[in-house]
């Protein structure tokens, strides 16, 4: 396994990490979740990502149970969770007013509830799961620093914030002598590149921002499994019942963006074939080639998927400058950076 | 229910909240108090206000018992208490020297005692119940920040402070990189408007001050129940034995201010009748129309009162600009703001 | 009882307080100590002073037992202790290197040990018992602020520091946004006035320094009990075996300073007689007339002494400007303040 | 025993301290370790140094057991440990990514694990065991201040950092109003002088840096035990199996540096003989003569070694200016300080 620093921090994370998004606590049974986490751990993955929102807290519960069962030493692991969407903690939707967002109340109460579900004393990284534009940035920065001071997390990061919001958080943290967000978690893959390669560009040097990306395989499109423009029987997209998957499935046939993406995946296939690797490995290796990336978060509903994904690390060298250029010629989406005199 | 942010914080509070002033722990029996809190909770009220001073701590005890009994999730609720008058914690009046005021000692000891009575780990908001002009503002600001740091409250506010005192607290909090008071709790109603509409005007934009007001119905005068210039039999004013109510009752017949207020209430009746709402609903709706208000704190000794009050929210639209002008023509007390070039 | 603020803090202390210096835990039996504390408490004294050094910790132990026995509410009481001389915590004199002084280690360990002996969660005020010129002022200021942050004290003060040292502590506290020492505890009485009336003069306005003085009766000289230039049989000075008392006794007959002081006490007798009060009451009332004084700490080995001392408060008015001038004419030690343009 | 302040702190440490490097928990049996610690304690040594790395945590375990067994009062002792190399806490070498270094995670987790092994609530001093150039200095400074705030240590220091790194830590600590490293632990002896006497020169006045040195006898060379250019049978160098000792042994015969050092030791023998002290005592006394040194850390596998070393303190006066010059003439390595106008 390759390990990278999480942005400019001293924390080392495996460049591939395992996320518990729609899967653990959701449509993947607890036993399979356990097998996947075990396979990941055995393959050298030390970084496990979850969120209070995933499967209404069940993703955290499952992860907590697995960590406890295998008695993995705490220092072996980097555990992250995300706070913003904890309405399942409330007794009703109307009562959930303060179970969402990034108010000091919810940052404290949300993280406390997460730690109970995880059966942990602390997480390593706590993310602001999306910005909360109704809460002043100073309250957000103070809230996350408060939970760090209390020993419930070592670092805090953001997920799907704009570069302006991240810069603003740093401006306030600097003013208050506090800690700013050390990592952002956006989507990043061959088909979605703008944020990581362009928008966040000024933040890397200035604030040492790290990137942990989700969806490195573009919800599977880049593995080639939709290359026939159809949803394979028995796949997650065919069977899962969470709102996100359901909505993707509903508009699958009419979604022009989806068609364009599948076409790109089809066009990348010859390159993968030529290198003797799977399409998924090609896509994952490409993401990992970006040195700004600290870790690519993969999902898995079967241990074999983890093995295949980790295998990608052996083939990084195959992505030579020439191959990279051929890939660019297919995806045709390389962001153009604007010159900037100062950062 | 409508929910608003508490001033510029990320906390969401129901625009109507329930207070436990002379009632819970006082002349209203515990069973009725329980019914009222339940009715409020069921009606979407998430914000419950009390104080160490109310009924010598019994208001907090009753609230704590009710919260415990119904096992309402903590994140459902926004609980506030107020510190300044805890002489009942002492063994005698003379011994109560440090059970009142806003010294670091009493802020810590008072809040600790309140939390024990409430059976809570923390309140959401702790108020300075009146200013303490014998304690330096820096000690007050440090004291409230200290209890926030220790996890006993998320925010602090003031009750019946002047605008200069609030601005001074912010000046010191800013200097010390601390948190200033996010909310003030004054009296505010159709008959008492100066503070909220004029004195505090510069604080809203500058410090994001929120307002939670007490006495939106002017101790019942605006419900019309004294329209006959008499105390109705069986009413709280006729029966309650707390010092405040007793003193109001004693001077009722000779109080010119009271007569003027009752006359205004009588003059507002035709407007309420015309809109097809009660006088109390008109008065409460008028308060809530002020967007500076975060929450109007009502008292209740019967669950029905809560239902009637919450009903007012359905009629906010009836207070059209034209109706608002007719109301102004009755009360004739609209504050005139002085122009100010800078805030 | 009269209560005053402790310097510029919000804390209220009885203007007469009870100290447990050579007495409690020392030559005064526990039962008498208990009777004295009870008498003091009943007389309205709310402020009890001790130190880790007194009677090798036994003064704290006795005070703790008495507080526990009578179940006095914590908020009734203002308890202070002092840290600097805890060598009795060590297993030998040589091992006591870090059981004395104001290093961060000893401030933390000393106060922890004091709280255990007192059976309290916190004291109200912790004093630096004499300066420690081997420890940098920044470490001292940080140490006392650290124990305040941890909730083990509300305020810190100094005992027998110079005005320059107090000013330096404030300079550093201000720089670090920390809390400076709010009170100094020097000797102050009719015969020793320079520090309180002259040296500390610039600190009262600038830093709001409060004064709690010890020895208001000049170890009894001002009560007139040595007016015959002899040690009365059975008195503490005749019987106590602590090093300080022993050394005073040893040089009693040859001590020119002592003789001068006794002569002054003799000369004050006619004034006391004329006012119809005891010499001790005159001396104590004189100290209390100084508005800079927050509290005068008295010792007592018999409950009657407390009654007599507290009685002095009834006679403050007798010290008219004319009487004050007659007193000055006897003691002839009024400090001359140098003019100062800036403080 | 002589006690010195640890740099500019208020902490007093014995000028000779006992370290548990390759010895306790390692090749020296627990019973001998216990005898050595007891002998040291009885000889007035109050300062015991260990590290998470020593003997994979066993050095801490042994020390903790001995402290517990003899029930030495905590305030008698100054205990230091070092954090940076805790890979033994992990389940495998690959999993140890975050069990080494000075990330916030490892500083917290490492010290927590050390305290558990030591069975202590806190250490007095926690060292950064070597710099971690992959972690930003701000994270390091914040991490050590965080554990101090939580009450797990009173001071922090460095071990084998460069002067630039120490100065940088202070620059950041000053900016953040935090505590900088108060002590550095380098090698220092007659044969290795550059760091202590030259590189760190600007730091003593500016930051009050203290020095605790290891290897004052140059792994025994300066005791004269290798004067015959041979490893004595039964010595630690002949028998210990830790990697460091093994590597020294392996290259002993071919190591030119070693030969030069032994030659110097041989040349110092006549001076020691003339003064009537052992070569080891001469070397140790020479180190202690440097007033910048707070404590020289000795190792010991037999109680007698401690007695001999402590004996050196009686002979400090024998190192007159003339003797010091003769020593310089033998070692010929006196650093030349460059003039500097400002520090």
Top keywords for this entry?
homotetramer, 343 residues, alpha/beta, TIM Barrel, 13 helices, 10 strands
Which helices and strands, and how do they pair?
Four copies of one chain form a homotetramer.
Chain A: E1 3-5, E2 12-14, E3 16-19, H1 30-42, E4 47-49, H2 58-70, E5 78-83, H3 104-118, E6 125-129, H4 137-149, E7 155-159, H5 163-175, E8 183-184, H6 194-199, H7 201-207, E9 210-213, H8 236-239, H9 243-250, H10 256-275, H11 279-289, E10 293-298, H12 303-311, H13 321-331
Number of helices of chain A: 13
Distance, first to last CA of chain A = 34 Å
Structural class of chain A: alpha/beta
Strand content of chain A: 5-15%
Q: How confident is the prediction overall: mean pLDDT of chain A?
A: 95
Low-confidence stretches of chain A: none
| Strand elements of chain A, count | 10
Characterize the biggest β-sheet of chain A: 8 strands, parallel
**What is the count of structural domains of chain A?**
1
Q: What does the overall shape of chain A look like?
A: globular
Indicate the percent of residues in helices of chain A: 40-55%
What is the subunit arrangement here? homotetramer
CATH architecture of chain A: Alpha-Beta Barrel
CATH-defined fold name of chain A = TIM Barrel
Rg of chain A (C-alpha, Å): 20 Å
């Amino acid at each position: 396994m390759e390990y990278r620093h999480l942005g400019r921090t001293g924390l080392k994370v495996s460049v591939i990490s395992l996320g518990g998004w729609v899967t653990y606590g959701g449509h993947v049974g607890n036993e399979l979740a356990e097998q996947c986490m075990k396979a990941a751990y055995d393959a050298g993955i030390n970084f496990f990502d979850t969120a209070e929102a995933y499967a209404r807290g069940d993703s955290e519960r499952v992860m907590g149970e697995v960590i406890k069962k295998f008695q993995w030493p705490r220092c072996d692991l980097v555990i992250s969770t995300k706070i913003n969407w904890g309405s399942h903690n409330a007794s009703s939707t109307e009562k959930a007013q303060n179970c969402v967002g990034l108010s000091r109340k919810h940052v404290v109460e949300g993280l406390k509830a997460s730690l109970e579900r995880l059966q942990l004393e602390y997480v390593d990284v706590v993310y602001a799961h999306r910005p909360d534009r109704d809460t002043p940035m100073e309250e957000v920065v103070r809230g996350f620093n408060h939970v760090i001071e209390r020993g419930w997390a070592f670092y805090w990061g953001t997920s799907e914030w704009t570069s302006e919001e991240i810069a603003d958080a740093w401006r306030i943290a600097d003013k208050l002598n506090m800690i700013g967000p050390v990592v952002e978690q956006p989507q990043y893959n061959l088909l979605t590149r703008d944020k990581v390669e362009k928008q966040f560009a000024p933040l890397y040097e200035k604030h040492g921002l790290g990137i942990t990306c989700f969806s490195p395989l573009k919800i599977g499109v880049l593995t080639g499994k939709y290359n026939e423009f159809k949803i394979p029987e028995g796949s997650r997209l065919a069977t899962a019942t969470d709102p996100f998957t359901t909505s993707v499935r509903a508009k699958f046939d009419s979604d022009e963006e989806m068609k364009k993406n599948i076409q790109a995946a089809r066009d990348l296939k010859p390159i993968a074939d030529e290198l003797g690797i799977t399409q998924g490995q090609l896509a994952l290796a490409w993401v990992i080639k970006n040195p700004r990336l600290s870790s690519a978060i993969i999902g898995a509903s079967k241990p074999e998927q983890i093995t295949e994904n980790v295998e990608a690390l052996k083939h990084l060298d195959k992505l030579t400058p020439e191959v990279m250029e051929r890939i660019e010629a297919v995806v045709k989406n390389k962001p153009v950076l604007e010159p900037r005199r100062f950062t």
